[in-house]
Amino acid sequence: MAKENQYKFSFGPWNISEGADPYGPTTRPPQPFDWKLAKLKELGFDAMMFHDDDAVPDIDSKSPDQVRKEAKELKKKLDDAGIFAEMVAPRLWFSPMTIDGAYTSNDPKARKYAIDRSLRCIDIARILDTDLIVLWLAREGTYLREAKSAKRSTELLAAALDKMLDYDKKIRIAIEPKPNEPMDIAYIPTMGHAMALAHLTNDPKRVGGLVESAHAILAGLDPADEMEFAMSFGKLWSVHLNDQNGLKFDQDKPFGCHSLRSAFNQVRALERNKYGSKGECVAFDVHSFRSTKIEHAVDHLAHSRKTFLRLLEKARTFDEATAQKLIAERDYQALDQMAIEHLLGK
Ligand code: XUL
Ligand code: MN
Asked: Which ligand has the minimum distance to the alpha carbon of residue 93?
């Protein structure tokens, strides 16, 4: 039987969305935060992820005191629900200030905005009692290569990380790499880049990573390998499990929707490296299909968690002894069929 308790599950308010895409309007009505929190609890999740402005809406129009006051109100709401905050992430891609980048913008005023906002995000994390700051470096890249220098941008990123690390000696920063979208090409496209960037900062041990399955696939990489790479540094601090059909826009499909075999290997990678034993969460960064009706607005989250737990059973019952024998014999043909039959079940 699966020991479900080893894993803690989370999602963010943005994972219950309204179905808009670049070609059409919303297809479901928006739901208030309290409704989302109640659903999260009802579905058996343990934690919520936050962007800074999920925690404090319209953050840019509020004073640091007001931001702290609203964060405290949110903390009380979470405590009352028995839910903890997994992480806080500065949303640095929405403001008119960050059209051409945040930490790597060519405009010094935009770079200052990005750092000030990141420090407010750390204030919120402190109040919500999490030490984890997630950075999806959405606009840190270019639409054309002549616009910025990769070396200068890397140095600017390290300097921005230093400002955050110095501001609060307790926080850890998990970089969530993604190779493209919204930019043509991003500066920190893979976990290798994230791990290397950590070593340009003044406290490398507090800079780690978060693997999102779809982002790894968009980089042409295997999500399970990206996870194990970060874990070999002891630095896989969160995962955003979801799925993706090939190299196109970021689809955020339910976990296992496109490749059950890849999902199995991701769960197996987490399980065999004891992911979660230091309190790391399994987060699902998934979205409903646009066609989903409001009465099914959280099914993709329930289903992703259910698939994870089913695959956990599969990882725990995989016949490792036979697998090792086949590996020793170099009989990968049989190993392949063994994995397929294990997933298919009897
Ligand atoms: C974007 C993405 C974000 C981050 C959090 O592709 O995955 O939602 O996970 O900022
Ligand atoms: Mn994500």
From this structure: 1
